[in-house]
Write a structure and sequence with these properties.
Distance between the termini: 45 Å
Radius of gyration: 16 Å
Structural class: mainly alpha
Number of helices: 7
Oligomer: single chain
Number of strands: 0
């Protein structure tokens, strides 16, 4: 119980610092921003999701999941070519909404970055985890 309280109290200042870094990075040069943005959004989503851990109410869990989803959405709008961000977003949606939402995200990723082998592999792994062996063969 104490560890979940500590986790929640330390996650909020970290999120505030991440949001500060994101807003201050708008004045940086283009190569620096391309390197920082994906990591900041991935970290922000991870901390937001970790804030849902422990013995908390369903409202707090729903707020934490919505906050993490906002980080992923904003990150994917800024960094459409970031493969790890697409994969994390897909796995996040698979954990919280099941394979249907994750499928739509991985399909969108494959449309945005069509020649990336990692996204095709992630799609086959998603289908295997969902139990669709026939679909895996078609990919």
């Amino acid at each position: 119980m104490v560890s979940s309280i500590l986790c929640c109290t330390t996650a909020t200042p970290r999120l505030a610092r991440l949001e500060h870094y994101i807003s201050s990075s708008l004045t940086m040069s283009a190569p620096t921003v391309r390197y920082l943005y994906p990591k900041l959004y991935m970290m922000g989503a991870e901390y937001a999701e970790l804030g849902a851990g422990g013995e908390e109410s369903e409202e707090k869990v729903a707020d934490a999941v919505a906050s993490a989803r906002r980080y992923f959405t904003a990150g994917l709008q800024q960094c459409t070519g970031c493969i790890p961000l697409w994969r994390l977003s897909c796995r996040f949606e698979e954990r919280h909404n099941g394979p249907n939402r994750a499928r739509s995200i991985i399909e969108l990723a494959r449309l945005r970055v069509p020649k990336c082998d990692e996204l095709w592999l992630e799609a086959t792994r998603l289908e295997r985890r969902a139990g669709n062996a026939k679909v895996c063969g078609g990919l």
